[in-house]
Amino acid sequence: MTGPEEIRPDAVPGTGGPGTAVPLLEVRRAGKTFGGVIALRDVSTRVRAGEVTCVLGDNGAGKSTLIKILSGVYVPDSGEYLVDGAPAAFGSPRDALDRGIATVYQDLAMIPLMSVWRNFFLGSELSRGWGPLRRFDVVRARRVVREELRSMGIDIRDVDQPVGTLSGGERQSVAIARAVYFGARVLILDEPTSALGVKQAGVVLRYIAQARDRGLGVVFITHNPQHAYPIGDRFLVLNRGTSLGEYGKGDITRDELTSLMAGGAELEQLAHELGRPDPAG
């Protein structure tokens, strides 16, 4: 582990490779308090096109607060929030969405009894006709959903089936494809693999890679470094509302990331406590 990356405010837009272009979004020394409780303090990170920024931490680390700042639910009490290198202040998640920042929460905002295609366009219905003859264009909606899922490599048996019949990984993939279709430039994923088994988690990671390869900036919130490390380009580790550092992939190994997140000394002490006594001793 070579140490946290420096957050550079002077990057130049349009210069090409990762680490050079102006970030799609960035927070600098962001802080948020609720009464006397410090939920987030002096946290900085950035998200670039075609990269995955992983935000890791246990419960209470500040991940949810950071998500809500990035997605426009909260306004930070201190620090800066920049979009495309310019200061931004969102009054609601709708404002963030209008700038191409889409958040997929754990509950996915889907209705289980509705079909895949109906959930895909929920709240943003395709229509045809004018005035009193205006109707939801069902044929076009079904076709668009099939095409969008296929273009992401997502194999859904029947777009007419209820979303509730899909696996957890498939539901996550539909939510990701929906955000991409509606113009997301930054995709914030709130613990998308937390309730999934190994195989389904792998499915979701593949679709995150698809979004990244399409040029989106992805924020992957997770408490699982085993899921984060294969897909991540940079890693922000939070603990009790503060940053333990932000690392590029070449600066930290999977084991070092796990140890940092778990608290290396505490983990070693726990292993010692749980170890069996030596029978010969």
Automatic annotation (TrEMBL):
PROSITE patterns for this protein: ABC_TRANSPORTER_2
Record Gene3D superfamilies: P-loop containing nucleotide triphosphate hydrolases
Region Disordered, annotated ranges: 1-20
InterPro entries: AAA+_ATPase, ABC_carbohydrate_import_ATPase, ABC_transporter-like_ATP-bd, P-loop_NTPase
Segments forming domain ABC transporter: 22-265
Domain of life of the source: Bacteria
GO MF terms, alphabetically ordered: ATP binding
Alphabetized UniProt keyword annotations: ATP-binding, Nucleotide-binding
Protein name: ATP-binding cassette domain-containing protein
